[in-house]
């Protein structure tokens, strides 16, 4: 048996005709920049997230970048974030000449730890920290209630990196969102999404969106994504070309109605794995730690963009699974504070939980169309490895 990490072909079986029709609709419309598909998707995503405004952009990375640009983050400013994420979270800070400041992660959720954040904020006596970027890693929200309390106390804007978490819900903050809890992206000043094909809502190429509840901030984002121009050729700000392609918007509108059913399938697959790992004895033997859902209640939704195990002998297990035709990946092998591009900024930095996670975790296939037989095979192989 062959089990890929992600199988986009499997969803093409039922989506291809609609995707082709959507692309063709854009081609025939001759509206190749902005236009009704982009505006339609912006409304639909904003509504889905329980946020007021959606601003389509070229990628998740650019969503984060224009959010920071719209906050006027300048060279030399500090931005507080997690040391354990995809590179883009830190890359956008560095591109603006700003300095990433880290707080270590919680070992169960792998998300930034509010207690560690407070330790960092207390020491920031010169008030160099100008913004906070929590990441909802793997599809589960960071602990936003204490994070928002800190942000309010220190008067700092929060930009949620929700690239992996569209539709995830956090139970701890009151809101009028459709799911009782607060949806990822709707809790801070702004939330940033990616439509990279491997995310739960993936385009047929690059795309992203910023959502916000704040009208003024939305207006600034809209300027920023289009060279700061309003009206055309009158430039209030220096922005860039960060626009969302209408072909991507049209394709994403085909997929959006499926999103909640895909989340549900991923979550069911996670429960199947958890059960199989428990029964296998691997959990009791402490070879494997299954992912924890750190919040409880109905309003808690983990969308399982990734299913992450913490394991013994991680690198050998990865090689073994790859040799057994089972897709797996390490997200991420090098924590952000150890990236070579940081140069002198990395000197003396140490975040033990992020480093341990980078050395001991592995992602298994979790996509919606994965079958129970495939999951059984994956677990059997892992049992064989430790046996
Ligand atoms: C995917 C991702 C991004 C970047 O999104 P792109 O659309 O690939 O630019 C940013 N942050 C996190 C946490 C991501 O997973």
Report on the architecture of this protein.
The strands form 4 sheets. Strands 1-9-8-5 form a 4-stranded mixed beta sheet, sandwiched between helices. It has a 3-stranded parallel beta sheet with strand order 3-2-4, sandwiched between helices. It has a 3-stranded antiparallel beta sheet with strand order 10-11-12. The protein has 387 residues and is α/β, with parallel strands linked by helices. The chain folds into 2 domains: 8-103 and 112-257, Aspartate Aminotransferase, domain 2; 258-386, Aspartate Aminotransferase, domain 1, CATH 3.90.1150. It is built from 12 helices and 12 strands. It is globular. The model has no long low-confidence stretch (mean pLDDT 96). The longest helix is centred in the N-terminal third of the chain and has 22 residues, at 8-29. The chain starts with 7 loop residues before the first helix and ends with a helix. The structure holds pyridoxal-5'-phosphate (PLP). Residues 59-61, 85-86, 88-89, 135, 161, 163-164, 194, 196, 206, 208 line the site of pyridoxal-5'-phosphate.
Write a concise synopsis of the structure shown.
The protein has twelve helices and twelve strands. By secondary structure, it is an alpha/beta fold.
Which class best fits the helix and strand makeup?
alpha/beta
Q: What order do the SSEs take from the amino end to the carboxyl end, as H and E?
A: HHEHEHEHEHEEEEEHHHEEHHEH
Widest sheet: strand order?
Answer: 1-9-8-5
The CATH topology of the largest domain comes to: Aspartate Aminotransferase, domain 2
Number of strands: 12
């Amino acid at each position: 048996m062959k089990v890929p990490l992600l199988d986009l072909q499997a969803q093409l079986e039922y989506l291809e005709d609609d995707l082709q029709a959507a692309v063709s609709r854009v081609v025939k419309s001759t509206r190749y920049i902005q236009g009704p598909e982009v505006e339609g998707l912006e409304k639909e995503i904003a509504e889905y997230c329980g946020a007021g405004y959606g601003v389509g952009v070229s990628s998740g990375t650019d969503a984060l970048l224009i959010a920071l640009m719209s906050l006027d983050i300048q060279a030399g400013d500090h931005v507080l974030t997690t040391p354990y994420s995809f590179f883009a979270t830190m890359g956008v800070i560095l591109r603006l000449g700003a300095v990433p400041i880290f707080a270590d992660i919680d070992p169960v959720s792998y998300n930034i730890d509010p207690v560690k954040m407070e330790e960092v904020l207390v020491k920031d006596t010169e008030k160099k920290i100008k913004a906070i970027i929590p990441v909802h890693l793997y599809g589960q929200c960071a602990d936003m209630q204490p994070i928002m309390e800190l942000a309010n106390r220190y008067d700092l804007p929060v930009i949620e990196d929700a690239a992996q978490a569209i539709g995830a819900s956090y139970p701890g903050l009151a809101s009028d969102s459709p799911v009782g809890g607060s949806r990822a992206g709707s809790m801070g000043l702004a939330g940033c999404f990616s439509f990279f094909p491997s995310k739960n809502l993936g385009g047929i190429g690059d795309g992203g969106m910023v959502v916000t509840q704040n009208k003024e901030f939305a207006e600034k984002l809209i300027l920023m994504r289009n060279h700061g121009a309003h009206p055309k050729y009158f430039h209030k700000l220096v922005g860039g070309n960060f626009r969302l392609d209408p072909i991507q918007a049209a394709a994403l509108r085909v997929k959006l109605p499926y999103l909640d059913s895909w989340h549900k399938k991923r979550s069911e697959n996670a429960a199947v794995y958890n059960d199989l790992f428990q029964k296998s004895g691997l959990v009791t033997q402490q070879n494997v730690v299954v992912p924890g859902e750190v919040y409880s209640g109905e309003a808690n939704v983990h969308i399982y963009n990734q299913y992450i195990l913490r394991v013994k002998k991680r690198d050998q297990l990865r090689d073994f699974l790859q040799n057994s035709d089972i897709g797996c990946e390490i997200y991420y092998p090098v924590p952000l504070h150890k990236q070579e591009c940081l140069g002198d900024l990395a000197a003396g930095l140490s975040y033990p939980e992020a480093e341990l996670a980078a050395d001991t975790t592995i992602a298994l296939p979790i996509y919606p169309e994965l079958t129970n037989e495939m999951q059984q095979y994956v677990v059997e192989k892992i049992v064989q490895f430790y046996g």
